[in-house]
Write a structure and sequence with these properties.
It is a single chain. The chain contains eight helices and eight strands, in the order H-H-H-E-E-H-E-E-H-E-E-E-H-E-H-H. It is an alpha+beta fold. The chain has a two-stranded antiparallel ribbon with strand order 1-2. The protein has a two-stranded antiparallel sheet with strand order 3-4. It is elongated. The two termini are 37 Å apart.
Length: 210
């Protein structure tokens, strides 16, 4: 992962990790990955704020490090991204709920703290209006007796497919914050992982010498 020769190479980190006691491997590896991940996470938050992504604060607040529970045996994997939707805890979801009265007195529940839109910010997206005028389209159909007939299909302007098809939309440029943080903090993350590992090894050596 590291490119500069003066910065710790991942091969050196792997070699040093072999000194870890077998019963402590999982615990130490988790600490190492979290130490490196925190650097990337905090930089991603700073970059998102600098990009102007602080209207509600939901997206920045939900940039997290998540442990992969199905990682291969003997490894520790963590994901850095934006927690949203069902991945958020029940407590967080309930805290963001608010009841609104919409058309005809109908009550609906909406969430203010669900940054489902984070990929739109990271990768850019098309502008799709809330609604467009409905219309109709024609298509041909061959009947069982071989006759070809022309039919008309009417469609509503409320569906997402119709809005994308009918509207002359623009594009919102991307404002990435996860990918750049991963790229520019690789060396710093590896250094933090090595520092965490060396602290553990020093403690173990002192215990062995006592």
């Amino acid at each position: 992962m590291a490119n500069k020769p003066e910065v710790l190479q991942i091969e050196n980190l792997t070699a040093a990790f072999r000194e870890v006691r077998e019963d402590m491997g999982s615990k130490v590896s988790r600490r190492m990955v979290v130490a490196g991940g925190k650097i990337i996470r905090e930089d991603a938050k700073a970059l998102a704020r600098a990009n102007g992504s602080v209207i509600t604060g939901a997206m920045v607040d939900n940039i997290v490090i998540k442990r992969e529970t199905d990682a291969p045996e003997g490894t520790a994997q963590y994901h850095i991204g934006v927690r949203h939707g069902r991945d958020q805890s029940r407590k967080v979801r309930s805290a963001g709920n608010r009841r609104l009265v919409v058309s005809r007195g109908r009550i609906t529940v909406r969430r203010d703290n669900d940054p489902f839109y984070w990929r739109f910010v990271e990768r850019g997206h098309r502008v799709v209006p809330a609604s467009v005028e409905g219309g109709q389209s024609t298509y041909t159909q061959r009947l069982r007796n071989g006759t070809v007939v022309t039919r008309t299909r009417r469609f509503s302007g409320k569906s997402l497919r119709a809005r994308r098809r009918m509207a002359n939309t623009g594009v919102v440029g991307k404002k990435p914050f996860i990918a750049p943080s991963l790229q520019r903090n690789r060396d710093a993350a590896i250094t933090a992982m090595d520092r965490t590992l060396q602290r553990y090894l020093q403690r173990e050596r002192k215990r062995g010498a006592a």
